[in-house]
Structures are given as structure tokens and as C-alpha cells.
Amino acid sequence: MEKTLRGVTLRKNEYRDNTAIVTLFTPDFGIISVTAYGIHSTKKGVASALQTFTYSEFTLSERNGKYTLKSAELIESFDRLSSSYDELCRAAKLSRAAMTIFSEPSDNMGDAFELFYTVLSFTAYSDSDPEDLYIAFLLHAFSLSGQCPAVTHCSVCERELLSDRHMRFSPEDGGAVCSAGCSTKGVHVAPVFLEAMRRILSLPVGELDKVKLPKELQKSLSVELDYYLRFWYLK
Ligand SMILES: [Zn+2]
Known about the structure:
Elements: E1 2-16, E2 19-26, E3 30-37, H1 46-49, E4 55-63, E5 66-76, H2 85-101, H3 109-125, H4 130-144, E6 167-170, E7 175-178, E8 187-189, H5 191-202, H6 215-233
Parallel strand pairs: 3-5
Antiparallel strand pairs: 1-2, 1-4, 2-3, 4-5, 6-7, 6-8
Helix pairs in contact: 2-3, 2-4, 3-4, 4-6
This protein binds zinc ion.
């Protein structure tokens, strides 16, 4: 059966002359692997459509749940993402997080794709700090996949923490926890640490380029949310 769909190429592993296994993120099926023959063929436009971090339209044939690429046409190349090593690393980091968080298909793959595509576009075209965009992506992706860290209540006793001056953030316990008694794991954080996460989560996806974090807060959020990602999705 043939299907035509749009998506972003996340990864391309060439394993034989002119053949590759390509990982695509699509709004229809989530993250899928596709076997592509003739990847260096310029005639069909396949080569440019299969560059990593490009948005393209693909025609696939499906047999027993396995996909083979029939044709591909580039729609948006996000040129800046391949313009330097730093840009490539940023796009690769975002893609790795998407592949980790959305590895299992679910009902809201359309929303998951929109989040990824929007943040990838901001990374390519806006003046936003890519690390701020990455943090915003992680939080919204955790939320969409049903594993959002606790940001208003203690994840152990469920007491509201909004008026607390001291609290901890413990990825292993599921997010924010009371500063004493509930957990000895995680790190002490200031109220602004939780406030920043609440604000980011309340923004619509199309406004995530408004996130501007002070450097120190950005660094601590980045470290803790990367740990949260590894703990909940790679264990
Ligand atoms: Zn507590």
C-alpha cells in the first residue's frame, strides 16, 4: 500500500552503496524507520529531501509494517541548521530528544510533530537562544507525553509549593519536592526555577521563541531537565 506524507528527516544511516535507513518524524505516524534505495539519485530529488533536519514530502510503500521510500520531494531545507558545526549540533540535540521522548507512537503525534517542527523552525530562523528553545521543547514534550515534572506541588506529598521560599528539584521523584522531609534527592532550587518552568509550560507552542532565560537559570534548568529526560525515558 502506498502512502504520501510529510515529515522531517531526523537521521540517515547509510549502510550500503546508495541505500540508507532513514528515521522520519511525521505528524501521521510519529517516528518511523524507512528503507531508502537510490539515495544519491539526483533525478528524483531524493538526495536533498533526505538531508537531515529537512522537511519533505515522502511517498512510501508499506508492507508488513515496514516502509520503503518510493519518492521524496524537499519542501523546506532549514539551511542555517547545516551551515556550521554548532548549528548541526543544536539540531541533532533537539532530534535526539524527540526520538527519545516520542519513540512510542500515541494519539497526539500531530501535536508532538507540531512542537518539534515549530522549535526546529525557531532554531533555524529566530534570534532566540537555542538553549532556551531546547529547554522549552523538553518541557512541552514531557507534558505531551504524559510525564510532565511537578512544577506547582511537591511530587511526593502533593503539598502546594507556590508560597515556599525553599524547595528541591528531584528528577527521580518526578519534579519539585518540599525542601525538607519529603526527599533527600535532587538539588536545592529557588522559587524562580519552578516559576520559569510554569511560565514556559503556559506559553502556546507558537510563542516559545519568547522564552528568554538568564544564563545561570538556563544552565541549571538545562542540567536538571537533561537528567529528567535520561531518568524517565532511558531507564
Ligand atoms: Zn512534600
